[in-house]
Amino acid sequence: MKILNLLTLTIMFTLFFTGCKDEVSKQKAEYDPSKPVVLKSFYPLEGGARTKILLDGENFGTDPSKIKVYFNNAKASIVSSNGDRIYAIVPRLPGEEPKISIVIGKDSVVYENSFIYHTQAQVSTVTGNGKKNFKPGMLSEAEVYGKYLELDAEGNIFMSWRDGGSPATFGIARINEKQNIVTPLIEAPSTTRILFANGLTVDRATGMLTAAHESTKEVIFTFDPREAWYPRQRNVKFSTADLQSIVDADRYKNFVTFCPYDGHLYTRYRDGKIAKINPETMEAKIVHQGPYGSQYGQAINPKKPWLLYMTLHSNATPTEFRQGISVLDLRDPNGTGGFKRMNAPGGSGFRDGPIEDALFNYPKDIKFDNDGNMFVADYGNHCIRMVTPDNIVKTVAGQPGTAGYKDGGPAESQFNQPWGVAVNEQGDIYIADWSNARIRKLVIE
C-alpha cells in the first residue's frame, strides 16, 4: 500500500511539474504586448527570392497570422514561429540591401544589419522562329510578330499584331504555355482593319479582355472568357460636345487600360484628351487635356491604382514629354499636379539610376508587377528596364545599345527592338521581341 501511495504521489508530482512547465513555456511563447519585441540575429545573411531564413529574437509569439515580416516594403511569407525564432521565405525583388522589419501588434522593429539580396534573371523563348508573320499552332511551330502583350490571372498571354505576312493581317491571339498553343481570337486582312489594335488590357477579376480600335473615336472590342473570347464590337457613348471636341485628324487612340481603383477604362487620343469609360454602359467623358502626341505605352500601378502611366512618341508637344515616362493622377486629373514627366528630359539616351536622372531610347510598352515594379520595353536600347517602387531605374535584361537574339542570364541575353511587355501574377515578364519576331520570357527574382 505504501509503495502504491508513493507511486501515485510520484505520478501526480510529475504531471503537476510537467503541466506547470508547459504552462510556463506557453506563457513564454505567447506575444506579450507589455514587453518589447527583441531582435537578435538572422541567418543566412544573404540570398535571393525564396531563400529560407531564420529570424531570432524574443517575444514573437507563436501565431504566424499575427506576425508580419518585411524586406524593405516587400512582404515575406511566414512558415512558423516558436516565440523566439521565425521561419520565413525571402520575398521577390525587395532591393539590393533590404532592411528586415518585424511587425507584431503595435510593435515594429528593424534588424540593425541589412540582408544582402542577390537578383537572378533568366531569359527564354516562348514561341516564334524569327519569321515576321502570324501562324497559329503549337508553340514550337507558331509564327508571331507581336507588338503588344497582356496577361490574365489564368496565365493566358494576349498578343496584338499589325504587320508582317503576305498578305499582311491584323489581329489578336491567345498564347498559352501550359496548353502549348497559339490561337487567333480575331484576324483580318490589313486592308479591312476590322480591329486595328495596339495596347490591350484585362480586368483580372473577370478576365475580360479589351482592345481599342485605333482609327475610330468610339469603337472598342471586348473578349469575354465566358464566351471563349468571342470578339464583340462596342461603341463608346460620348456627349455630343465631348465627341466633337476630339480633333478628327488626331482621333487615334492606341491604348485602353482598366483601372481597378474606380472600375473604369481609360483611353487617350493623339490630341491629348483622356477619356473615362464605364465598361458596363460604355458611357464616357473627357476628363483631361494633356500634351499632343502619339503613344507607345500605358499602364496602371496596382500598388497605387489611381496613377496612370504613359510613354509618348517623339512627336509629342511640348517637347519635354517626348520619349519619356509620364504620369497622371486620376483622382484629380485636372489638379495642380497635372500630367507630369517622371524621367530626365533630353530625348534618346541610356542612363540608369534615380528616375529623375534616367534616360530611355524610344520606350514603348510599360507594365507593372503586383509589387509596384514597372517594366519598360526600351526599344531603342534593345533591353528591358525596371523602375522600382522607390523610383530607381535598372537594366534587368539585354545589352544596352546592342541588338541581337540570345537567351540566358542578364550578362548574355539579347533583344532586338523589344516592343511589348506584360507581367503575370507571379511576376514573370513576357516580352514581344518585335524585330526578332518572338515572344520571350524573363524570370527575375
From TrEMBL:
CDD domains: IPT_PCSR. It comes from the Bacteria. NHL repeats lie at residues 409-439. Pfam families: NHL, TIG. Residues 39-117 form the IPT/TIG domain. PROSITE patterns: NHL, PROKAR_LIPOPROTEIN. The lineage of its organism: Bacteria, Pseudomonadati, Bacteroidota, Sphingobacteriia, Sphingobacteriales. Keywords: Repeat. This is IPT/TIG domain-containing protein.
